[in-house]
Amino acid sequence: MHIALISIGNCPSLAMRNIRHYCLRHEDVRRSVTFQLGDYDIRRFRESRLSSVRNFAFVTSFDETILEMQRTKPRIVGFSCYLWNLELSLHLAYLIKRVLPEVCIVLGGPSAGPCAAELLDRHDYVDLIIDGDGEEPFLALVRHFLAGP
To pair with 123 at 20 to 30 A between CA atoms, which of 73, 107, 113, 115? Predict the structure, then answer.
């Protein structure tokens, strides 16, 4: 099983690395799961929304990421959400769900957990939101998917 952990920001996400590391400490996950860390530069995503309209650019950071997701076909895509990237993360999650409807979209982080009910109500493409520390709940989710239907 393949899992993508995505963070849109100014630097690599320590939270996503901690979740990956925690999951890979367990033998059942280590032998069955590959992780892809996607640390995306927030400036490129912000520019993508503008340049695609103003400059008629037909390949944006969103498009590149979607193509990568189509190539790797993750079963779970997790997003680390903060004040500065929540809207961009939601937009990317929406696009991923459109091209990979079976993928499980998971949000976490300080801008997702506290308002989980509202986000789940407004964004039907989001499957799960983790509130608080994500290592143990994410491991439980991975194990749920490994167990099968």
Answer: 73
